[in-house]
Fold this protein.
Amino acid sequence: EALAECAHRAALRQGERADPAGEELPAGRALRALMDGGDPTRVMGTLYAVYEGPDSFPALQARLDRLCAAVRKNGGCVAVCGGERLLALFPGGAWDGIRAAVEFRESFRAEGAAEPHLVVDRGEVTLGTAAGTVQAFSAGIARSARLAGALPEWGVTGLLTAGALSSLGEGQVPCVRLVGFGADGRRYELLDGLPYHQKKLLLATRADFELGVDAQERGDGAQARRCFAAVVGVDRGDRAALFHLSACGKAGDEGWNGTG
């Protein structure tokens, strides 16, 4: 199992990219180059990250250096970068954003920091100039920000939208589980980059968990409760299952609509 996990992680890292010039570009210049490279509105992958700020500026600086390097290595461009959030754009698609998200998780773990909350999406993004700087505009980015803000309550630290998952090409197969649904479609928890034993438990209970989400989607609250109770019986640390189970109990037999 450990060897299979290593092989899967290696596949995620295939095709890593660096800047052609082999040097770091300031975020503003990189965004402007992306905007000037063709149509200002294009479909691309996005990664929205929310995290707890470090205690000191040197720690923040070191963190942002690592995160921006992970974005560049995977063919992306940082659009927003700050003490508690980061937005990256990936012209190559959502797969590049997924690989960067995995590196974000590993970077925070190596730092001993709390897990970041990550949302990978894919959709139209328009680049334009506002207040003298290049800005990214997209309804999808606003949705990603809302989703990232809700992840702590849902007990999830990494989310893929239906648009991101459906856009992946042959051989681009992240490890996920169906975790909920909303107006934008089904939503999937990203399991890659989690600690090995945590991921192993989530995979062991994935079938029951996904049956529970299916039951919620069709309004069968009783079946959903049975499924999530079975998950919690195996893994009491599964915060997403605990959240769903609690929500099912509040909703009654009519069920509950996933994660809103």
